[in-house]
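To the wet lab folks,

You asked to see what we're planning to order before we commit. Fair enough. Below is the target structure as tokens, and below that is the sequence we designed to fit it. If anything looks off to you, flag it before the synthesis order goes out.
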């Protein structure tokens, strides 16, 4: 068993599950979406992206691209949240939280694509 591939798969799947945990719930209810969960999803997604650097295969490029998309979506969601609370100094309205959750949903789709590609690569791997 290759420990590097185990960690790689672990962080890819953890990024997806944390993002899903943040995404699930009423789209416009701030009580259903925790800022710490969004932060954890972003950090794990960034770790997963770093782990995808260096793979020179075509599938590696696709995995990196999906991770970068997820990172950008999660960074945008965190920026909207931070801007709303600390720069504009307003409450999280249903419209703003819906925007944050929608950005997280885009990241979740990118993470799901990454996990599907990872499974496809594993299934097609020949010894």
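Sequence we intend to order:
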């Amino acid at each position: 068993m290759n420990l590097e591939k185990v960690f790689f798969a672990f962080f890819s799947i953890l990024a997806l599950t944390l993002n899903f945990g943040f995404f699930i719930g009423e789209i416009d209810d701030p009580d259903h979406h925790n800022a710490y969960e969004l932060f954890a999803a972003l950090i794990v997604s960034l770790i997963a992206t770093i782990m995808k650097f260096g793979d020179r295969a075509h599938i590696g490029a696709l995995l990196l691209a999906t991770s970068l998309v997820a990172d950008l979506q999660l960074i945008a969601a965190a920026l909207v949240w931070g801007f709303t609370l600390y720069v504009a100094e307003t409450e999280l309205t249903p419209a703003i939280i819906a925007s944050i959750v929608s950005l997280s949903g885009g990241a979740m789709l990118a993470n799901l694509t990454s996990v599907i590609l990872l499974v496809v690569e594993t299934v097609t791997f020949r010894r």
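Structural context that might help your review: Residues 1 and 41 are 27 Å apart (CA to CA). The mean pLDDT is 93.

Thanks,
Computational group
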